[in-house]
Specification:
Length: about 850
């Protein structure tokens, strides 16, 4: 199997190169002279026109210099803007591979997809740090560690740009949540900013030579990113030497003159505030200089020349839109990223001598959920559901059975009948009224949860209170589940027989589902009152009741009873995890309840989660023997999951973040929400102690540590040797052996500790890693190198990186908790 894997990898390497390398050429005197000649031909109106977008995804054409408009596409996981396109795994899944070489192949394949569509700028990758599991856009990013994120980003960018397409690293900077994203003011000290939140951007610029940087929506230390001179000029231009294009996120400009002077080159998707009228006024008043305007044009034109866009057609019609190479690359991504987190009793891989029937159940089973929502959401030409993929791969090995499981929310809300229901309405500017209603409380589907920039859906003229009153007649005895759902910007209280049993207070713009068990008596009616407040134009509330015994269908109960093992597929999708709003830590209702009911009927339960990060597991984790995270797996996810379950491929994924036991354990949770008041301040008070830096330093154990991932084989680390070759080269060597009975892969991780530092540092920080693939019994000698930066911290006073001489510690293992090798040495 291992030999065939090597041949497959070799074929992938060859197949990626569908067109000759067309990487950007370095800036040269000849390029500068050509740019200057073009600018000399441009009028002021031409220059002002060039720095504002048009038609959503284009720069403007400038006929006076024969410049055609340049085309852009959304694209972290697919060149999605212009119709169907290959769908790759989510960014967090790519990070879970810990494979920069694979990231380069992914980038190259995306570059081919872009050239097939004539795209100049691919608006990717996103490299914002995973600060909290709640961020609705974590799935696009590369995890909690800046070194891992940087290595994946560099590979991805080099792959994209090798095809003559500019990557666009985003969102600069500290865009670590989606709720209220236009107004959040991220307060971060300079050292934390430089050491955690900027290194992936820095590597994109200084190593991968990315063509464009996209500024984010939020404020950083009191200034919007699009007009933040410290970010765009001091750091990006001066410290890192960036010569490419700085563009805004879509409608992320807030002051035209401030943005023009603060380092923004291109306002997208059109000149809303950095308009010709505003900037002409600035030129006339002296608040803007012609030199500043010329520099913006110089960077756009210089980038176009570097990438060859003025000298060739960007569209290559010979590349198929439905590129078959993408299937091969996305399958490799999925196989390397799926992460095995628990496997008690060796339930996986499924043994066909013991498992003759597999029941598949859950909301993620029968539909192909390839990615999350928002600007990364890509619709592929084809993708199988997990059920279809498993049935196809199972063949004659075992029988795959399927049932949906618990009813969806809309069904529960629609089937819940309240008798004699009335609603009292008290809205701003209108007299109170009471009316009968036959529509029930199932209006949840009138709002999809996605509000641009934290809008929270449709808005009204003021707060409206709806007071619903009625009766509910239970038709079954015993426990019932009361479920309510509404945007978290709305509030409600649910009372049964006058007693409050469920409530929601105003929070962010996530769509929340809450539930509680209530004991009801068959055929004994109870009074129900729901007091609901919203500033939306219509109610966005759903309320339902269902008997616990009726939740799991008879069909589902039967296949669970008959099956030798069960796969429960749960998690999020594009409607519940997306750009534009944060998600819940709990999985969407009723998935926790589904897992609990399934494990009660069949203890041989495998749970597979689709999500962009960690989720709440406390209600069921102790009773589940096997747990997989399949992320958002792209168009080949079903094939990859089948190969993992049936043992055709050993799991390779390792977590790119720490998985907390509860949300409260997450070090950022206490500082994640905005402070009360109108300031919209979010203080990054955890500082450097985020994720594993917190857990290892504070001697706490998360549920699953950073870097963790299980395999179907075992590995041993031995013979650590640390040798200083020079002040800028420390050589770390060690041996990794596959001690199991089958081929597999592990991730060797090198962490550095600085116990003698003059200021507080985390106990250990990732500074190198290597993906190691070995046959059973095979041994590999690994040699990695650490430069001086690996031992340094950012000295705020000196405005530079600094290493304090003293005793350092090298830790080697395959997670932040599994560290079998350790050695101290002086520097």
């Amino acid at each position: 199997m291992f030999l065939s894997r090597l041949l497959t990898a070799a074929a992938l390497l060859c197949s990626v190169t569908l067109l000759p390398a067309q990487s950007p050429v370095p800036v040269s005197p000849a390029i500068r002279a050509r740019v200057d000649a073009l600018i000399a031909k441009m009028s002021v109106d031409d220059k002002l026109k060039l720095i504002g977008g048009v038609d959503s995804f284009y720069t403007q054409a400038i006929p006076s210099i024969a410049l055609k408009r340049l085309k852009m596409s959304d694209g972290p996981v697919g060149v999605r803007t212009f119709g169907l396109a290959p769908a790759y795994t989510a960014g967090v899944a790519l990070a879970a591979t810990w494979d920069p070489a694979l990231a380069e192949r992914v980038g190259a394949s995306l570059g081919d997809d872009a050239r097939a569509r004539g795209v100049n700028f691919l608006l990717a990758p996103g490299v914002n740090i995973y600060r909290s599991p709640l961020n609705g856009r974590n799935m696009e990013y590369f995890g909690e560690d800046p070194f891992l994120a940087a290595r994946i980003a560099v590979g991805y960018i080099e792959g994209v740009q090798s095809k003559g397409v500019s990557a666009t690293v985003k969102h600069f900077a500290a865009n670590n949540s989606e709720y209220d994203r236009h107004r959040i003011n991220s307060i971060i000290d300079e050292r934390t900013l430089r050491e955690l939140y900027l290194p992936a951007f820095e590597a994109a610029v200084t190593e991968a030579h990315v063509g464009a940087v996209m500024d984010s929506y939020n404020l950083v230390n009191g200034e919007h990113s699009t007009q933040n001179a410290h970010l765009n000029k001091d750091i990006l231009r001066h410290d890192w030497g960036f010569q490419g294009v700085v563009m805004s996120d879509w409608t992320a400009t807030y002051d035209g003159l401030a943005a023009a002077n603060g380092g923004l080159d291109l306002e997208m998707p059109f000149a809303k505030l950095m308009t010709p009228e505003t900037l002409k006024g600035g030129l006339a008043s002296g608040k803007l200089t012609m030199d500043v305007l010329d520099e913006k044009c110089r960077r756009i034109l210089g980038t176009a020349i570097q990438f060859g866009w003025l000298d060739r057609d960007q569209t290559i019609s010979s590349i198929p839109l439905n590129n078959p190479n993408a299937d091969r690359v996305t399958l490799e991504e999925s196989l390397e990223s799926i992460t095995l987190l628990k496997n008690e009793g060796g339930l996986l891989p499924l043994d066909p001598t013991r498992v003759k029937t597999l029941a598949v159940i859950g909301p993620e089973a029968a539909v192909a959920v390839v990615g999350g929502g928002g600007s990364s959401q890509t619709t592929p030409f084809q993708a199988n559901s997990f059920v279809a993929g498993l049935m196809q791969a199972a063949g004659t090995r075992l029988k795959v059975m399927y049932a949906p499981g618990l009813p969806p929310l809309a069904t529960i809300f629609g089937r819940t009948s309240f008798r004699n229901l009335t609603v009292g309405v008290n809205g701003k500017g209108e007299p109170p009224r009471t009316e009968n209603t036959d529509r029930g409380l199932s209006r949840i589907n009138t709002w999809n949860g996605v509000g641009g920039g934290g809008s929270g859906g449709p808005r009204g003229a003021g707060l409206t209170t709806y007071d619903y009153k009625g009766e509910y007649l239970p038709t079954a005895p015993g426990e019932h589940v009361l479920i309510a759902s509404a945007p978290e910007q709305d509030t409600y209280r649910v009372l049964i027989d006058g007693k409050e049993v469920l409530s929601q207070q105003k929070d962010s713009n996530r769509m929340a589902v809450r539930n509680v068990s209530v004991a009801l008596t068959e055929n004994k009616p109870v009074s129900v009152e729901v007091v609901y407040q919203t500033n939306g134009t219509t109610p966005r509330l759903g309320v339902g009741l269902v008997a616990s015994a009726d939740m799991l269908s008879p069909d589902a109960q039967k296949i669970l009873h008959d099956a030798d093992a069960v796969l429960v597929t749960v998690g999020f999708d594009a409607s519940t995890e997306s750009e534009g709003f944060d998600r819940t830590y709990d999985m969407p209702w009723p998935q926790n309840e589904l897992i609990q009911q399934v494990t009660a009927l069949n203890p041989k339960t495998i749970v597979s989660i689709t999500a962009g990060g960690a989720v709440e597991t406390a209600p069921w984790i102790a009773n589940v023997p096997a747990l997989l995270h399949n992320w958002y797996p792209g168009q080949q996810g079903s094939t990859a999951l089948a190969q993992i379950l049936f043992g055709d491929h050993s799991p390779e994924g390792h977590l790119p973040f720490s998985w907390e036991r509860t949300l409260d354990q997450d070090p950022a949770s206490a500082h994640y929400a905005e402070e009360p008041g109108e300031s919209r301040i979010v203080r990054y008070d955890e500082g450097l102690f985020l994720g594993y830096r917190f857990y290892t330093s504070m001697n706490q154990k998360p549920l699953f540590p950073f870097g963790f991932g299980m395999s179907y084989t075992n590995f041993a680390f031995t013979h650590l040797n640390v040798k200083k070759n020079s002040d800028d080269d420390v050589e770390v060597s060690f041996t990794v052996q596959n001690t199991g009975s089958r081929a597999g892969a592990d991730v060797a991780q090198v962490y550095v500790g600085d116990p003698s530092a003059k200021l507080k540092r985390p106990l250990m920080e990732l500074k190198q890693f290597s993906k190691v693939r070995l046959n059973a019994g095979e041994t590999q000698h690994v040699v990695l190198h650490l430069n001086k930066r690996a031992f340094s911290y950012y000295d705020v006073d000196a405005k530079n990186w600094r290493m304090d001489p003293g005793e350092f510690v090298i830790y080697v293992g395959d997670s932040s908790e599994s560290i079998p090798l350790k050695q101290s040495f002086p520097m």
